[in-house]
Amino acid sequence: MRDLATGFGYLLQGQRWVGRHGKRFGLGLLPGLITFVLYAVALVALALWGVDLVGWATPFADDWSSPWQSLFRDALTVVLFALGLLLSVVTFTAVTLLIGQPFYDALSEDVDRDVAGHAPESGLSMGRELWISARDGLRVLVRAGVWGVLLFALGFLPFVGQTVVPVIGFGVTGFFLAEELTSIALARRRVDLRGRLALLRARRTLAWGFGVPLGLAFLVPFVAVFLMPGAVAGATLLARDLLHEDAGGNEERPRRTAGEGTSAPYGTTAGPTR
Q1: Is the pLDDT of residue 263 over 60?
Q2: What is the dihedral of CA 237, 242, 244, 247, to 10 degrees?
Q3: What distance lies between CA 231 and its chain's CA centroid?
Q4: From residue 146, how far is each of 87, 142, 152, 172, 236 by CA, in Å?
Q5: How far apart are the C-alpha atoms of 206 and 178, rounded to whole Å?
C-alpha cells in the first residue's frame, strides 16, 4: 500500500514541477495536441461505423430473430468501442512520446538536473534514440494488444466480464503507462525494455499507483494533453526511485561492462555497483 501512495505522489510531484516551469509545460503540450486530434478522429469513426463493422463481422447472426440479433450486435459494438478506448489510452502515451521525443527528453533531463544537479546521458545519436524508442514502443504496443484481445474475449463472460475484467484492464493500462513514461529517463541510463519491465514488475504496486490514476484521467477527453508534461516529469522521479538514486545526487553508478570510463552497450540493464 505504501508503494501505491508513493507512485501517486510522483504523479502529483510531476504536475507541480511543470507548473513551476511554464516553458517546459508549454512545449510539452504540442505532441499531445497532435496525437489527441488523430485519436479523436479515429474514435469518432469507430463510433459512427462500429455497428456496420460488427454487422459485417457477424454474418451468422443475420437470420436471428428480434430482439436477439440487435441485442447481440449492440453489445458487441459497445465492447468494440470500449476496446478501442482502452487501446487508445494505452497507445496514446507511446505515440505522443514518439512524436515529442526531443521535447520530453529535454524535460526529463531538466527534472534530473533539478533533483541531482546533473542528468545522465545515453551517449547515442538522436537518430539511434528515435529508432530504439520506436522499436521498443512497438513491442510494448504488441504486448498491450495481446492483453486487449484477451480482455475483449473475457468481456463476454457473465458478471466477470462486467466486474473483474475492467479492474484488470485498468491495472494493465496503468502498468504499461508507467513503462512507457519511465522509458524516457531509463533509456538515458541505458536500461533496455527487458530491464525496464523487470524493474516495474518487481514493484508493481508502485507502477500501479502512478499509472492507474493517470489511465483513469486519460479517459476524460483532452485531459491527457495537459497531463502529459507532468506525467513525464513524475515518471523521471519514479525512474530514480526504481534505480535507488537518492535525491541528493549521490547516484549509484551503472555497472560498466567494458573498460573504465566506457559506457555499457545499449540493450544491457544498468545496475548499481556494489
Answers
A1: no
A2: 10
A3: 10
A4: 11, 6, 10, 11, 27
A5: 9
Q: Return the pLDDT at 258.
A: 33
**How many residues are there in the chain?**
274
Instruction: Pinpoint the alpha helices (H) of the chain.
Output: 2-20, 22-57, 68-99, 101-116, 126-154, 160-188, 193-202, 204-218, 223-242
Q: Which long-range contacts (CB under 8 A, 24 or more apart) does 87-91 make?
A: 87/144, 87/145, 87/148, 88/39, 88/42, 88/43, 89/173, 89/177, 89/215, 89/218, 89/219, 89/224, 90/141, 90/144, 90/148, 90/172, 90/173, 90/176, 90/177, 91/141, 91/144
Contact 96, 228 (CB under 8 A): yes
Cell 458487441 belongs to which residue?
A: 76
Q: Which three cell numbers stand for residue 53?
A: 463493422
Residue type, 54: V
pTM for this prediction: 0.69
Find the helix packing angle between 2-20 and 204-218, rounded to 10°.
50
pLDDT digits (tens, 9 = 90+) for 38-76: 888 888 888 888 777 777 877 777 777 778 777 777 777
Rounded Cα–Cα distance for residues 259 and 61 (Å): 67
* Residue 219 confidence class, pLDDT cut points 50, 70, 90: confident
Closest among 232, 233, 224 to 37, alpha carbons compared: 224
Q: Give tens-digit pLDDT for 77-136.
A: 777 777 777 777 767 777 888 788 788 888 999 999 998 888 888 776 667 776 777 777
The dihedral region occupied by 265, where left means phi > 0, alpha psi between -120 and 50, and beta the remainder, is: beta
